[in-house]
Amino acid sequence: MQTLLEIIKKTAGFLDKRGVENPRLNAELLIGHGLGLARMQLYLQFERPLTEEELDRIRPLVKRRGDREPLQYIVGSTDFAGITLKVDRRALIPRPETEYFVEILRERLAASPPAQILDLGTGSGALALALAQGWPSAQAQGVDLSVEALALAAENAAALSLAGRVRIIRSDWFAEVTAGSVFDLIVANPPYLSDAETAAAQQEVRDFEPLSALSAGPDSAAALNRLVREARPWMAPGGLLALETGIGHHDALAALSRECGYASAESINDLTGRPRFLLIRQ
Question: pTM higher than 0.85, yes or no?
Answer without folding.
Answer: yes
